[in-house]
Amino acid sequence: MPLSAMMKPSPKSRLEPVPLLAFGAHPDDIEFGCGGVIAKETRSGRAAHFVICSRGEAASQGTPKQRVAEAKKSAAFLGATVEFVELDGDAHLEVRTVHAIKLAGIIRRVRPGAVLAPSLVENQHPDHSKLGHLVRDACRLARYGGIKELRRAPGHAIEQLFYYAVTSEAEPANITPVLIDVSTPNVLKAWTSAMEAHASQISARNYVELQLTRARLRGLRAGSSHAIALFPNDPLVLDLLATVSRGARRF
Amino acid sequence: MPLSAMMKPSPKSRLEPVPLLAFGAHPDDIEFGCGGVIAKETRSGRAAHFVICSRGEAASQGTPKQRVAEAKKSAAFLGATVEFVELDGDAHLEVRTVHAIKLAGIIRRVRPGAVLAPSLVENQHPDHSKLGHLVRDACRLARYGGIKELRRAPGHAIEQLFYYAVTSEAEPANITPVLIDVSTPNVLKAWTSAMEAHASQISARNYVELQLTRARLRGLRAGSSHAIALFPNDPLVLDLLATVSRGARRF
Amino acid sequence: MPLSAMMKPSPKSRLEPVPLLAFGAHPDDIEFGCGGVIAKETRSGRAAHFVICSRGEAASQGTPKQRVAEAKKSAAFLGATVEFVELDGDAHLEVRTVHAIKLAGIIRRVRPGAVLAPSLVENQHPDHSKLGHLVRDACRLARYGGIKELRRAPGHAIEQLFYYAVTSEAEPANITPVLIDVSTPNVLKAWTSAMEAHASQISARNYVELQLTRARLRGLRAGSSHAIALFPNDPLVLDLLATVSRGARRF
Amino acid sequence: MPLSAMMKPSPKSRLEPVPLLAFGAHPDDIEFGCGGVIAKETRSGRAAHFVICSRGEAASQGTPKQRVAEAKKSAAFLGATVEFVELDGDAHLEVRTVHAIKLAGIIRRVRPGAVLAPSLVENQHPDHSKLGHLVRDACRLARYGGIKELRRAPGHAIEQLFYYAVTSEAEPANITPVLIDVSTPNVLKAWTSAMEAHASQISARNYVELQLTRARLRGLRAGSSHAIALFPNDPLVLDLLATVSRGARRF
Amino acid sequence: MPLSAMMKPSPKSRLEPVPLLAFGAHPDDIEFGCGGVIAKETRSGRAAHFVICSRGEAASQGTPKQRVAEAKKSAAFLGATVEFVELDGDAHLEVRTVHAIKLAGIIRRVRPGAVLAPSLVENQHPDHSKLGHLVRDACRLARYGGIKELRRAPGHAIEQLFYYAVTSEAEPANITPVLIDVSTPNVLKAWTSAMEAHASQISARNYVELQLTRARLRGLRAGSSHAIALFPNDPLVLDLLATVSRGARRF
Amino acid sequence: MPLSAMMKPSPKSRLEPVPLLAFGAHPDDIEFGCGGVIAKETRSGRAAHFVICSRGEAASQGTPKQRVAEAKKSAAFLGATVEFVELDGDAHLEVRTVHAIKLAGIIRRVRPGAVLAPSLVENQHPDHSKLGHLVRDACRLARYGGIKELRRAPGHAIEQLFYYAVTSEAEPANITPVLIDVSTPNVLKAWTSAMEAHASQISARNYVELQLTRARLRGLRAGSSHAIALFPNDPLVLDLLATVSRGARRF
């Protein structure tokens, strides 16, 4: 799906959902943190776009060139488009207003419904929580009318910001998660392929097993095979309780 | 809708939602705490049943007989059926297993999807949080196969338990709420009528204003006229993010 | 009341309270967040001074010139003096030591007793929590003797720092608030006029209603008509319990 | 001061404060937990009454008879009257409605302004937190009009419920404390004498040193010699900020 | 190892550790919650004793007789002795002082160093958290000298109380866990056998997989194959940091 | 002990522990916050090294030259080596990636086991929590292979990061501490001497008494004379529970 198509949502039609926009600090964060959710959404007909804020140049393994290639291959498995944006570089990210405004500009261009960002929990790779802060602020700035740097595109209010957690330790303790059921075999397969596409990263550590184990544990709770937790930044607004008729109450 | 109809849910059909079951410690708690949600759900075709665990005999105003009459009138405004159950009496409730099992028996009889109960926050009328604890445990016991006292009816697993808060102070700080939009004029009207039906209670205090003010404040946040917060006991399980495409992000 | 009078507090006399100093990120934040408290304090004879850290130039409505004029008119309704200070500009504020020192310099000049600042809760306009952090640090730096940039004025230790919350979502969950009773008719009237003075801001949104609704809800709890919550940064020190002989226990 | 005098408060007069009522699970809990506050209040002219809910019969040292004698001697040092009430016995206390109603009856008789109770933190002597729960509920029940067992005396709404902590571990982490300055030499002396009056208890452990050390640490924070933390059950309601013009900001 | 041997610890010798005492509400709780820890400890030469507080008579599968037989077989795999104690029966447990005293009597008899109990988190099987509360209180009561019912045996102060969590949802969020490395193959094998010994319970649900998945996820964090989290009731006291020279910092 | 010795740890030998590395924002922070722990560790044969990130030039008392001299004298009492590093200057510290990388370089050079840093609690001197953040991030960056600025030294993974709290208010409420017993007379004496070596700081305030009072209060809890609390950044990983056989359960 070309990006141009994605940029013209028709919000009047409820049947065609507005795109999903996911931010990652490094080339593999989105896939490891919530790749199954992306696969589930794109397979239901929703467009997804990735914005990756470094080329992984500070990692112990993999060159930036390799990392970019892996990210593109991985996004393809998930049915997502991908772009790279330069902020301060891998392991050097800082929370600066100029970055938040840059990301807000992307939000105005893509005009997403849901936005995904790494969680704000600080005891993880420093780039993760810093990017989470930047995206949260960017979602607000995208809405405000008077910011000069953003005047090229009209303001845009997203529907909801969800945080993903790259590891168990990055799961925020103060937000009740929603669990997304990712048990469909082709979804699980696409997610696994997407993670394995980051070949330079998975040789040394058990990243793929870690994520599938986490999802299996959530799935056992949710009464399905595998599930992924997302953490909403703001309360969900519902019309009817029937919309959320499943709860995680298996044990 | 007669209660008999409500007790024969056809869970195979997703189109006919299983009933809603709400528990209240006193004759007016459900209405003041989440009456708008009840009105919204019944107007969408869902059955609702109230279980009231005292006759309000310890209140400063109103006789038990008046309170029961008011509760029946109020439930009618909300389209709900109502029954009374004897536990320890108003202002005398204790957390006893025998009570939890009695409520579990009702759950097995009504076989609801969603269950509503007063929140577990302790700094409110002591009966409220105690009933919340009893209902939470009852939802588990209703599922277990070997409890002798419950053998008359087959086990039943509810979909989700939501807590309502009779006052702002009773809102749990550690659960991210979902906001139910109750802005439809006939929903608001039914809710107001249901609260005003408790004539013995609203003479001395500003209970109706309190609840409409709370809902207005939530509505301003949710981008609608009025909304009511419910607090899920367990994470929601979703198939797609599009199910929850509204977030409370207006200010 | 001229500012010069305010800068010569006579701390020896308990009868003439030292001034109140309130910081706002935008021209209307103080008024919407805690204007009723300001009106109550100035009507009791206490001086109040506002420091506004942008001209609202990133807002969707209103020019900087309009915003400044509105702020001056609004402060007059509340009996407060007002000054503007340049930091990074609206929607561009960052937490920099140079800003904290600049604000500490103002604290040394005004020599306030109580200081008011926006809350530290991060899920609001980014400028709000960033200014809250800066003011908290500024209150400490104002006290330290060796900071070169501040040597023009002697060190000053404030009595207490209170946070105000511009919206319900900005109320810190981890601090027990104090509720200030703002029910006096002339206080409520001055507060409402001060909010309405921000004419460019209140046309599009229900800001005034939002704040009066919040205060009404607090008032119902406090047993009065309207009340505003402030959140102390440090525990209050009391000589006798009789000083705080009212508690919010109405429901 | 005779108890009879204490039971006739004249609430119309602000100058004569309504009495202070303190509950303790064992004969020495009030003294060790907040004896300095009691001494401060009675020396300012306020009446104080102690309700002790066991005779310490499960302690490792001291007979019930000794414990009662020590408690009376200790209360005299603090200027307080004292009564004993039978609930389930030392180390056997349970949270029963019948107990809460019995304590509510005492509240209706004494008609206090402030009430003091052990904190709700559970990781301490089990009787402490259970009594805290009973007192909190009793304060509510004392207000309700329709409780048959309480009809002998008219309903009474207290002003505020404060929790005291017998040890550092019993201090609630989720309530911002108020610090009461107990630095006056005669207050400190009376408190020390009151603790030492529990001769059977202080032989084996460093209880007196523990409490003076805690108060010294709080005093260093509060900018005084010694201070004791109390934890309000509900937000304080203030007329003016000047009422609370000291904050604990020394380090 | 006979129980009689276990009851005569020689606390003077640091080389022979005092026994481990684990409490379970149902015949399989200890094994599923922390069986790997038990296997690790007994294989290092420490005695372990299980106290099981029901015969699982309310479960959906398995008769009480089967459950007892399975528990004995399972304990043998773990090298632990086992006894059953009658409280209120499966799914009927209540927090009563008489139960806490009964458990305190067992503590005085066994005289353990470490005690293991189900966590206090309430949103799980109601018996679990209730037993956790009872054990916590029992550990205190075992120490007090004056409790008549306990006079047969001298008081005993345990070293530390640790909570185990039967499911992920039962892990307390407010306690920093310690992770016990259970990667040794014979430890993992003994634990798996012990869980599989509960044949009546594991047919219908994925209990064994759930626990091994949880331990694998912890192991990935701890830099080992498998680990189990325990949650100390009180801070650990150390002589030197070298004692705790491993931290869970792998991702 | 020369620094060169410290930089060649022999990790294979468990008997010779790897060095302890402590970071302080000002010349006296380490001593006041956890000096007793340092004395205990060095007296057991472990090397300790201090990195001090300013010369205290913003303090009310003492010149930078005096402060450096005092720090050296103080470190000698504790058996630690000391170095000074320039970041932004006293009272001017900011959280910048360049600082975290500089500290990561020191970690790679010293190659410590345990690292000590000021706590992350924000309501203290702003430099303290900022340095805590920088050290936490530095511990991660020291491990990553691809950071260009750090390529001179091989990556190093520390064992554990512990936070110390310079005042009671700086103790993190969300981490269960470990208590280090510092009761040995020569440890207490060395610690006191080290604090008193900061002669310019202790003249005006009761810093030494504050710290000894805090340690005495912890000691009373831990069943010893004095103890100091440290707060681990990550869960401890243990082989056996016997390693941590003391718990703080005295009251």
Description:
Six copies of one chain form a homohexamer. Chain A is of the alpha/beta class. Chain A is built from eight helices and eight strands. Chain A has a seven-stranded mixed sheet, with helices on both faces. In chain A, helix 2 (29-43) packs antiparallel against helix 6. Chains A and B meet through helix 2, strand 5, strand 6, strand 7 and strand 8 of A and helix 2, strand 5, strand 6, strand 7 and strand 8 of B.
| Strand segment tally of chain A | 8
Q: Helix and strand string of chain A, N-terminal first?
A: HEHEHEHEHEEHHHEE
- By secondary-structure content and strand pairing, the structural class of chain A works out as alpha/beta
Straight-line N-to-C gap of chain A: 41 Å
Q: Provide mean pLDDT of chain A, rounded.
A: 90
Strand content of chain A: 15-25%
Largest sheet, strands/sense/barrel of chain A: 7 strands, mixed
Query: Biggest sheet of chain A: strands side by side, in what order?
Result: 3-2-1-4-5-7-6
Helix content of chain A: 25-40%
Shape of chain A: globular
How large is the radius of gyration of chain A?
A: 17 Å
Name the assembly state: homohexamer
Identify low-pLDDT runs of chain A. 1-15
**Number of continuous helical runs of chain A:** 8
From the structure above, extract its key features.
homohexamer, 251 residues, alpha/beta, seven-stranded mixed β-sheet, 8 strands, 38% helix, globular, disordered N terminus
